[in-house]
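Inputs:
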Amino acid sequence: LIDRESPQAAETAHVADPAFRRDIIEGLSRPVKATPPVWLYDQRGSELFEAITHLPEYYPTRIEIALLNRHGEDVAALAGPGRAVVEFGAGSARKTPPLLRAIEAGAYVPIDINGAFLRESTAALASALPSLPVLPVTGDFNRPLPLPGAIEGMARLGFFPGSTIGNLEPSMAVDLLRSMRAMLGDEAMLLIGMDRIKDRDLLIAAYDDDAGVTAAFNLNLLTRINRELGGDIPVDAFRHRALWNDDKARIEMHLEATRPLDFHLAGECFHMEEGETIHSESSHKYGSRDARLLLRAGGWEPVREWTDEEGMFSLLLAEA
Ligand code: AVI
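Outputs:
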C-alpha cells in the first residue's frame, strides 16, 4: 500500500510517528475534516484490510487474481521472458508468484516502505520460487528510488495491483505514474489493476459489507488516534459511512458523528456536530477510456486491457 509508515515500530516504542501526528491534527483542523488513507493501516488496520479482501462483497481482489491467472500467458506473450518485475507495495502470495512464473521473470524487486511487510513477502516468494533472484528495496515509491544494480540492463515490468492507484487523487496518480516511468526506464512495461465504474449498489456493498469488517477497518482509525496521540475520541459515537460521489467517480469512506461531541488530542480541543464527518479514504473508479487517459497523462501508452465478463475490474498493460 502507498506510503505505509512503520506502525509496529511506533506502537512498541509508544512514540507517535511525527508525520501521523501532523497529518491527523492538520486534517481534523480543516473546515471539512479529512485524513490521508495511509493512516488506516496500522497492525490492526492491515489485518482488517486483509479480511476485507476475502469478503463476498469485496470483488476487486477475487477478480484481479482470476484475471492474473487467466491472462498471465497473454502478458508473457506481450512482455517477453526475463524481465525484472518491480512491484510497488509488498507482494501478496496470492497474486505475485503466478505472475512471476507465467512471464518467466528474471528477477523480482518488491518495493515497500514497511520493512516488516517486505521481509514477509520476500520470505514467501523465496519458498514459492527458490531459483528467482529476489531483491527487496525499502523505501517510499511515491518518489523515484534507485533500483538494485543487479537488474541493470534488464528490461523491467512494473506491477501495481489492487487498484491502489484509486486511493490517490487523480493529479497525484499522474505524478506517481510519471515517477514509475522515470524509475523503470525506456524499455519498461507496466501491469496495473484498476477498479471500474459500476452499479452504485455493488460499489457501496463492497465498502459497507454486511459483516461490518469495513466499518471496523474505518473506525479503527479513531482507536489508533486515541492510542498513539493520547486522544479521548468517543469511538462509540461514530459510524462508518460509504458514499458514492458520482461527480468525482469515487467511493468515499467517512466517519460520521452520531451526536454533537467534543474530543481532545495532542493538547487541542475539537468539536463535531451531529452528522458531521471525517473523510478517511477515497477510492476512485475508472472507465476504460478514463484508465487510458490516466495512463497516457502519466507517460504510459496502453497496450492491452483485460476485464472480467461483467466488466467489474481491469488489468491494463502499458508500455513506456
Ligand atoms: C487498498 N485499496 C485499494 C482499497 C480500496 O478498495 O480502495 C482500500 C479499501 N478501503 C476499504 N475497503 C478497501
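Remarks. Residues 232 and 290 are 42 Å apart (CA to CA). The pocket of N,N-dimethyl-L-histidine is lined by residues 1, 52, 60, 162-164, 166-167, 207, 214, 281, 283 (CB under 6 Å).
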